[in-house]
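Lab notebook page, bench 4
Experiment: in silico fold of construct C2
Operator: M.H.
Input chain length: 240 residues
Purpose: comparison with the prior construct
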Amino acid sequence: MSDLIKNTPKERLVNGILKENPTFVLMLGMCPTLAVTTSAINGIGMGLTTTVVLAASNLLISMLRNFIPDRVRMPAFIVVVASFVTIVQMLLEGFIPSLYSALGIYIPLIVVNCIILGRAEAYASKNPPIPSLFDGIGMGLGFTLSITCIGLVRELIGAGQIFGFQILPLADSASGKMGYEPITIFILAPGAFFVLAFLSALQNRFKLGAAKRGIDPSNPDSCGGACASCGNSMCKGKRG
């Protein structure tokens, strides 16, 4: 029964977004995470592109898992992923050329993204197609959420903007107008490390605080096993 619960679409989505978030928990895919998150829109673009490739490749690899010889599974996985990356790259170039230019070389590098190959090896090659599809969607959404948050913070501090809109009025030295002085290091490479470290620490602080209270952050219905003294009305039906 536990295996069936673990393979439900809801659990796969929660697992990718919270429990095994590829950026803040597993620390995978650091290359695009640090390189393209100079703005929130770049984060969303790279995240959704990776999500499409991840979900499609997970689905196809799961469907072919009984036909791919074990000794050539990694080359086979790379061929599947590369095929989907090529399709997505051509679609971006044709329909969203601005995003294609912004992401640049990091689009074809999705082929060797350790998130995609890791899920193909660890999950899709061992599980049925539908759970594998939702595992890919969950991991992709977790990755998208993470790098969008990183891009949001970097863009706000480094340029005073959010999604390209000027939120903090900039100072004008010519007219003597007071305003925000962008901290440009945050849109450079070191800024990516600073923001990633800060957001990872913030998440860990939240998780540790919840653990001390006996709460599982990924399960809002959890009460840490102390059902007899739990004040959560949702747990009343579980008390003996």
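Observations: The chain is about 60% helix and 0% strand. The chain has a mean pLDDT of 86.
Next step: discuss at group meeting.
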